[in-house]
Structures are given as structure tokens and as C-alpha cells.
Amino acid sequence: MTNVQKTFERLVSLAIQREEEAYEFYMKAAEESEFKASAKLLQDLANQEVTHKEKLQTALKAGVCETFSCETKKELDDMDLNQYLIDIPLLPSSTPQDVLIVAIKKESSAHSFYKALSELTGSGQHRTVFETLAKEEESHKNRLQHMYDDIFQPDM
Q1: Which helix (H) or strand (E) holds 141?
Q2: Would you list the domain boundaries of the chain?
Q3: CATH number assigned to the domain covering 3-152
């Protein structure tokens, strides 16, 4: 396995870890939600993150890292894919509004990350996996944005 493939493997493994963290994040937010509809949406998002993790694990086992089109480590580093996998911490004092803002940012970053991976992979099968994940993360972001607007900006 080349250094570039190893780097992609680390990135996909980190994405799997971020999906696990997203699941925990949404489940905790659902438990703490004062609104039944919000809790349901957050639980739905948590369950979808489990599916994302499974898709990534399947792609990793199927050799997705061998299908990426970057030739050199420098070319890969220049893309700065790590920027999409940053962790956005919440504090114990975080409000429900803070939780939604962080969730929207997480989903937006995940969308950008999967979109970038879809554009890099040379395999149609694996490209479809990343395109699907990107669309689902964008859908999550939009659902969270609607929830935010309904709760915190109802008069707009």
C-alpha cells in the first residue's frame, strides 16, 4: 500500500470515527431535548449515522483506498481534507441553540468531505457511496436548519 493509500485509509477511518461520534452526539441531544419532535429527528439522524459508518466500513473493506486518484502525498495534502473532519466541541453549558449550530456545522463539514472524496475516487461503485453520503449529510444539515429556524427564528 502506498503512502497516499495509507493516508486515505486514515481519513476514511477518521470519518468512521466521526460517524460514531455523531451518533453519540445526536443521541445525547435527543435525550436532553425538551421537544418530542426534535428528539425524534435527532434519533433519526443518529440512526442514519450508524448506516453511514457501515457504508464506510464496507467501502474500506472493499479496497476503496486503492481507487483514489491522487498520485502523491503532496497532492493529497494540498487538498486539506482534514479540515472537514475537525471536531467542534460542546461545553456542559451549551444551550439547545448551541447544539443545533454545532450539528449544522458538523453536517456541513461531513457533506464537503464526502463530496471531495467522491470527486477523487476512480471507481464508480465507490464514487456512488461517497456521493450518497454527501447527499445524506446535506439532507441532515437542511433538516437541522429547518429545526433551528422553527425553534429559534419562528417569526422569520
Answers
A1: helix 124-152
A2: 3-152
A3: 1.20.1260.10
- Cβ atoms of 100 and 81 within 8 Å: the answer is no
Contact 147, 33 (CB under 8 A): no
Where residue 156 falls among pLDDT bands split at 50, 70, 90? low
CA distances from 151 to 23, 35, 38, 132, 144 (A): 22, 10, 9, 29, 10
Please state whether the predicted TM-score (pTM) of the whole model is above 0.70.
Answer: yes
Is residue 108 within 8 Å of 61, Cβ to Cβ? no
For residue 2, the tally of other CB atoms under 10 A from its CB is 13
CA-CA distance, 48 to 42, in Å (whole number)?
Answer: 10
CA 10 – CA 52 distance, rounded (Å): 17
Contact 103, 33 (CB under 8 A): no
DSSP one-letter string for 108-119: HHHHHHHHHHHH
